[in-house]
Amino acid sequence: MIDINFIEELSIKFSHLVNSSPAGDIQANFRALLEGAFTKLELVSREEFDIQAEVLRHTREKLNELEVKLERLESLEINGQ
User: Fold this and answer.
1) Which residue from 7, 20, 39, 60 has the least number of CB within 10 angstroms?
2) Average pLDDT score over residue span 20-32
3) Measured between alpha carbons, how far is 67 from 47 in angstroms, rounded to an integer?
4) What single DSSP character describes residue 22?
């Protein structure tokens, strides 16, 4: 996802730079250019990254638990034969 606040901040700063310039379309074009570039980069927000990191952490914990259970079952099966 694109961080719209970041784009907005850049757009405002750029607007201040060209405020006295006769190029009125520059701000809109610059914003569109930035949005297109960020979309192509397939960036994600920090919030989305943190959520996915938490999902991954939980999945790793679950995998570790399942590995321990499997080892116990295999141990019982070997000892029971």
Assistant:
1) 20
2) 69
3) 30
4) S
Q: How far apart are the first and last CA of the chain?
A: 55
> What is the model's pTM?
0.49
3-state class (DSSP) for residue 7: helix
SS3 state at 33: helix
Q: What radius of gyration, in Å, describes the C-alpha atoms of the chain?
A: 26
Distance CA 56, CA 24 (A): 47
Calculate the dihedral angle through the C-alpha atoms of 59, 61, 62, 67, rounding to the nearest 10 degrees: 120
Q: What value does the mean pLDDT take over residues 24-51? A: 81
Write the CB contacts of 34 (distance below 8 Å, at least 6 apart in sequence).
Answer: 7, 10, 11
